[in-house]
């Protein structure tokens, strides 16, 4: 199970930190990812992190503003979001992939982030 938290309404230029707690899947670290989706649009993958936390990738839309990190002993994934823009408004969800295949079959329900101008 994956449970996100930290989403709220914020003004443009502000910051938020999202968290995703992984439970019920054992203690092995996973490859993890953050996605976001706006109603009526395709889901967008915005950040990934490997098991060790050493390798991360970002979508161009968030590169330089968002940072993904993880605390493996706490089974928690984070997304630090800075310099938020109205176009960052979306439902943010985390996903896990035990095999690191890029499929991310385990997904959370999401947390809403709303950025006002």
Record keyword descriptors for this entry.
4-stranded antiparallel beta sheet, globular, mainly beta, 7-stranded mixed beta sheet, 117 residues
Verbal overview:
This protein is an all-beta fold. 0% of the residues lie in helices and 50% in strands. Strands 2, 4, 5, 6, 9, 10 and 11 form a seven-stranded mixed sheet that branches. It has a four-stranded antiparallel sheet with strand order 1-3-8-7, with no helix packed on it. The mean pLDDT is 94.
Radius of gyration, in angstroms, nearest whole number: 13 Å
- Runs in which pLDDT lies below 50 for 5 or more consecutive residues are none
Tertiary shape: globular
Q: Report the β-strand fraction as a percent range.
A: over 45%
In whole angstroms, the N-to-C terminal distance is 34 Å
Number of helices: 0
The secondary structure category is mainly beta
Biggest beta sheet summary: 7 strands, mixed
Q: What letter string, H or E per element, gives the SSE order? A: EEEEEEEEEEE
Number of strands: 11
Helical percentage = under 10%
Mean pLDDT across all residues, rounded? 94
Break the fold down into its secondary structure elements and pairings:
Elements: E1 2-5, E2 9-11, E3 16-22, E4 31-37, E5 44-49, E6 56-58, E7 66-71, E8 76-81, E9 90-97, E10 106-107, E11 111-116
Parallel strand pairs: 2-11
Antiparallel strand pairs: 1-3, 3-8, 4-5, 4-9, 5-6, 7-8, 9-10, 9-11
């Amino acid at each position: 199970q994956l449970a996100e938290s930290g989403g709220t309404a914020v003004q443009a230029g502000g910051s938020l930190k999202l968290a995703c707690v992984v439970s019920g899947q054992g203690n092995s670290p996973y490859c993890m990812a953050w996605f976001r989706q706006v109603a009526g649009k395709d889901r967008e993958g915005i950040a990934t992190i490997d098991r060790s936390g050493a390798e991360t990738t970002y979508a161009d839309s968030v590169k330089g503003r968002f940072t993904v990190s993880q605390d493996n002993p706490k089974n928690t994934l984070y997304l630090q979001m800075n310099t938020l823009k109205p176009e960052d408004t979306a439902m943010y969800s985390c996903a896990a992939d035990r095999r690191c295949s890029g499929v991310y079959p385990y997904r959370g329900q999401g947390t809403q982030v709303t950025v006002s101008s």
